[in-house]
Inverse folding.
């Protein structure tokens, strides 16, 4: 029995991120008979991370099915299905395995609606288990967000917790436009108790997960928990740091960013992706535009390095650590 | 391509021209024998004589209509080239020589069938009822993809990145299958397109899902400056076998053969028999586009031969000989073609640039507040 | 895959197991007849009896060496799974059942030939002389790709993104051809890999350039949870025809047949005859990797049948019957395998994490000042 | 006769960018017998933009050759050739037609040397005719730089003029690492007189093309000329604007950026790529890090919009214009 089948969606209970995403797919498949779920190993086996567990049995092999190992064709098929009036959730098995589909995603998923002047919507949700920290093989720990966020015509979201995973997945599927959802694989088994909400905060809306006015740490995905830890540690330094979970990378929540900068004057952005043209660059540039006169220190960037994501033995030195975050916040505070 | 690397290959598309290769150029038309490999299905020879069962089940007025459409399409194609020279269109990719391949195949489609084209299927678009002026707004630089409604015309937007429309067609056909419709999808692509990963992934997936799809390859001998013999060492129609569905090689300059092959493939698809790959051997008589100079890379003799195997002249000869049409009909078609070309020209020349706001109006069905802010700022509102 | 979409296909890899499909499971070993389509080349049957000309030109000591290598490789594979369970390796992809396919093919290579592997060719790596401990540092999470020297071992780095190593092999073979070398390239990939665009683009380009390349597909019935019948509706070896070069289907659990087929393909390549595609029918007896639970998607009976068609038992039976080896030799091999496994274990367990600086030391051959500044900052220097 | 064949490389004469790049390839092919040039239509026809004109005739079809339309395999073949000790210059015909090769470029071209611990170098030059302004078809006017600059393991350069095109191409080819060279197609026929220099300023070094201390306009490629025009126009507003031609997008010339910010206090970055995560984001973020206390105004961004690159009739409204640049500089100056 699949984890999610244990209780109705609305009942408060403990959810893993994987289970909550599974429940989101199940609820969406139930509500919309024209929704399909497909990709590599999502059908019979239920997905490498069990996110599609039990769905093929429940909704049948016409609604939830495996494909050949053909990422470009998976994305392209979703585009064609949209022309035929079907809504799709597709999976790329790991971050780097979304790259073979980049041409289809950039050229078509993102641009088709504009090309046909809105005659055909592209209600396609692209699921990508992403980011590092699982002691993975090469190409299993990458942070692909820049490729997607820079591509006009896409929306990009990243849940950091189980309950929010449910909410963001429901929004992504309901959205008439293509939405890339980057699922932090290192958090798949992290638990959170509470009620699943399909109409919680939507795409484009960030949230404050820890309040504070000494500095703002802006982040997303798996790094949210790490940043909360860093914020906790910073109390020992006398700094009350706010932690902002962006949730949505495209579009960004400019109001929340601006407010945080204005109220704290010191902002540090944290992500695993390489620094150059990572999300922190965009956020720093925006904060200059939105809150230049309020910034008391340069926007700090605690990020992966500008080298290929390393093997398991070195990944702890690549991903931002509590210590690196703490140091950066203190630098900003003491600037 | 390195001569030394191409050992065993005829170095040019048709084995006709070619430096360092002593080919005695056969006089007369381009014949199937000039293509390497398997002879294609052929009903009418280059000189217009029947060489197969030409009774493909079309009534005389429909047979006439085929000719009419080919004549009209060619005239429009030439007008487009003139329009480009006059600065009324941006770069334009002509299809002269490929009228039979496009019109014969599009003609076999039912009203509910759906087409995914490349950038060279204006003749097929006309058969589907796409408004020529709207179509040409793409080439005028007015709107990417062409502003016609793909849902209403059942003709997808113009697709530029080579072979990427093939997976779209697979998805569309899958949708038709899931809906239990009696409708099929047909996707056009060129010889060069068969070298892309998207061709392969799409074709293979179509086979696995058994979708109602016709993969229609116009092998026109060239992909810009690269001849088909340097695009692949195999025969394109034979790829089908590796995907587990039928492949057919047809003379793409024989409109009846193209029609028959496409009709059969559609019938198979409609009956649940899955995809068919059709390779239609034709020839790109003109340049790749108005920006291209084929004099740099191919011998004019090839083109002369292709002209001697012209699909329109061939079909007209057969049609006249068969008694289904007379010379007056041909003149009538030419008159209609002329009038149509002028009408389209007027429409094209009249087309104005879209308002700037349109750059932002269709990116998203549900534009976010952030997007709307960006839009206002960009428009200086 | 939707049953309704898979019409005409046997729903499981071998047509053996499968929900909703009434298959009477044949007792006994997995036989070629269980695979859809064309029977493969086979010299030794599952029970070890000769069914073809087993004189493939190898001396008795070499024939014995083949068995020895298979026994050693299997033992090491099992040790690796144990090492993973004990936390000494990260996820490990076993190759049990595929020893003949890997060792038979690698054995046919000359010292100057070059191999591009996937992530499952440890047995082939051992044949090429790759140090097992160095190889396993990849799976220990010490270094991506494996820290062995690909130039010295003539064995490329472990490649993860499916089928991407195929174009590398094409380029390498092109380099060999341009250098006029008497050397070839062999590239390994799985059944699932043949669905990727990179397989197709690489294979087609190899045909066009006529490069000395062997495309070696281990069709082990499964790509993680997807059986080969849902990976393609065709037969993999038949793809070759569409690329204009030979395709061969061989029983991948018959080491002599694999050796002979690879040897012939290499000879063809060496003589300027261009590429060959070999499809070796084998079976992934274990899980996709230590992270995978095949109980979710395949019937245990299939695995039992595959075990009854085991490549090592089969070859040992034949070798013993042929008089080229005796039971003492087999015991000797097992002893050697045990000792080797222990030695490798010790080496693996001893491997330490590399120093942090190494993260920056090989990104560029000519690191810029900006890069060096970034490096110093990152290292807190 | 090809344009470049008219005179020896070192003689001062007038060069188009296309001709200078052609000469760079010719000189490199002459100097290094293990250099290959291949791609779609680069051989017999000499390239859509004539950049490889005459090279196949001169160096033979084993050194300069056409490939099938297989971008991923073109990139992958270059990787394999590097293992066999060959150096490659590959072409993707237009910006967007580099996308089908992104998996090969990100996973292998950029990472192979690190993977094999330097046993095999990847001396691969990737030529991409790029950017808009030619009234092109869809997918013929894109600015792909973010995809490459964000990818660790690549170097990325953009020439803005004929002579510098020669220099940068020679550096790119000579470099033992993979270098992406984005050629501004709208400038292919722009002329410049002077001597070609193989060892002019290298990768990582920017240059000041117009001096001034009232503001700094930072840009690259085709936009350099537009920015110089804007700077000229700004003199009427009493502003002496410096124009910085980055030349190298990865790595960036941090010193030049920092100096320009310190000396002018007001920086505007100009590019055609969409704004979000375009180069201006990275430059703004860096300038905060490098010269926070010297910035008198937020770093301005004059860029393409966050929508798909439009058709010919609208591209003038998408690409930064002299007027938009002027306005942004004045905003910065009057901040
Ligand atoms: C992915 C991609 N690569 C390259 C191009 C540039 N290009 C445009 S048309 C063409 C040749 C296409 O040849 P073919 O498929 O035979 O069609 P034809 O032009 O002959 O109709 C090329 C290479 C492109 N549009 N897309
Ligand atoms: C581009 C890409 N997509 C997906 C994956 C995830 N993946 C790893 S192995 C595998 C199955 C490969 O099947 P096959 O080629 O048959 O090789 P086998 O595992 O059977 O040896 C998949 C899908 C990947 N590594 N690369
Ligand atoms: Mg063609
Ligand atoms: Mg397999």
């Amino acid at each position: 029995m699949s984890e999610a089948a244990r209780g109705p969606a609305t009942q408060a209970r403990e959810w893993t991120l994987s289970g909550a995403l599974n429940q989101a797919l199940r609820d969406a498949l139930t509500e919309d008979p024209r929704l399909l779920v497909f990709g590599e190993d999502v059908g019979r086996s239920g997905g490498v991370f069990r996110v599609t567990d039990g769905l093929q049995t429940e909704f049948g092999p016409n609604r939830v099915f495996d494909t050949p190992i053909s990422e470009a064709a998976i994305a392209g098929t979703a585009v064609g299905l949209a022309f035929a009036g079907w809504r799709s959730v597709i999976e790329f098995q790991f971050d780097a395995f979304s790259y073979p589909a980049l041409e289809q995603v950039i050229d078509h998923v993102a641009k088709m609606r504009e090309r046909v002047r809105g005659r055909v919507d592209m209600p396609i949700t692209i699921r990508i288990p992403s980011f590092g920290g699982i002691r993975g093989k090469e190409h299993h720990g990458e942070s692909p967000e820049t490729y997607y966020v820079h591509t006009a015509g896409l929306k990009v979201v990243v849940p950091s917790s189980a309950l929010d995973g449910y909410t963001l997945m429901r929004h992504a599927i309901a959205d008439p436009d293509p939405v890339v959802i980057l699922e932090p694989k290192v958090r798949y088994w992290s638990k959170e108790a509470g009620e699943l909400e399909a109409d919680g905060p939507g795409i484009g809306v960030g949230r404050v997960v820890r309040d504070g006015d000494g500095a703002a740490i802006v982040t997303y995905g798996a790094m949210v928990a790490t940043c909360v830890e860093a914020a906790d540690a910073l109390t020992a330094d006398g700094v009350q740091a706010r932690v902002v979970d962006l949730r949505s990378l495209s579009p960004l929540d400019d109001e929340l960013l601006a407010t945080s900068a204005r109220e704290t004057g010191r902002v540090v952005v944290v992500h695993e992706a390489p620094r150059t043209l990572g999300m922190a660059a965009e956020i720093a540039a925006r904060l200059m535009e939105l809150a230049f006169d309020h910034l008391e220190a340069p926007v700090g960037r605690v990020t992966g390095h500008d080298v290929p994501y390393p093997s398991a033995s070195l990944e702890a030195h690549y991903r931002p650590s509590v210590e690196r975050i703490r140091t950066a916040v203190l630098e900003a505070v003491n600037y | 391509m390195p001569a030394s690397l191409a050992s065993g290959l005829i170095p040019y598309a048709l084995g006709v021209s070619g430096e360092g290769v002593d080919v005695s150029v056969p006089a007369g038309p381009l014949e199937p024998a000039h293509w390497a490999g398997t002879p294609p299905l052929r009903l009418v020879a280059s000189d217009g004589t029947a060489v197969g069962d030409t009774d493909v089940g079309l009534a005389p007025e429909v047979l006439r209509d085929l000719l009419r459409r080919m004549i009209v399409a060619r005239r429009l194609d030439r007008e487009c080239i003139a329009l480009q020279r006059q600065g009324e269109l941006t770069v334009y990719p002509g299809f002269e020589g490929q009228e039979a391949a496009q019109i014969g195949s599009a003609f076999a489609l039912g009203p509910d069938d759906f087409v995914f084209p490349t950038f060279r299927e204006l003749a097929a678009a006309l058969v589907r009822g796409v408004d020529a002026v709207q179509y040409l707004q793409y080439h005028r630089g007015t709107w990417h993809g062409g502003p016609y409604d793909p849902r209403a015309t059942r003709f997808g937007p113009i697709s530029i990145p080579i072979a990427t429309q093939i997976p779209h067609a697979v998805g569309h056909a899958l949708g038709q299958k899931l809906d239990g419709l009696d409708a099929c999808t047909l996707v056009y692509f060129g010889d060069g397109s068969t070298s892309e990963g998207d061709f392969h992934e799409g074709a293979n997936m179509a086979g696995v899902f058994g979708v109602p799809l016709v993969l229609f390859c116009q092998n026109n001998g060239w992909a810009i400056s690269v001849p088909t013999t340097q695009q692949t060492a195999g025969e394109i129609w034979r790829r089908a076998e590796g995907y587990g569905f039928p492949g057919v090689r047809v003379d793409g300059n024989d409109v009846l053969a193209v029609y028959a092959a496409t009709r059969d493939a559609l019938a198979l698809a409609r009956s649940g028999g899955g995809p068919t790959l059709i390779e239609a051997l034709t020839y790109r008589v003109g340049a790749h586009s108005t920006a291209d100079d084929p004099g740099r890379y191919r011998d004019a003799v090839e083109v002369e031969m292709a002209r001697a195997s012209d699909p329109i002249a061939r079909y007209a000869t057969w049609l006249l000989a068969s008694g289904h049409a007379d010379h007056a009909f041909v003149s009538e078609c030419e008159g209609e073609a002329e009038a149509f070309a002028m009408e389209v020209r007027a429409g094209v020349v009249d087309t104005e640039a879209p308002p700037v706001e349109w750059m932002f109006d269709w990116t998203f069905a549900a534009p976010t507040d952030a997007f709307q802010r960006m839009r206002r700022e960009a428009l200086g509102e």
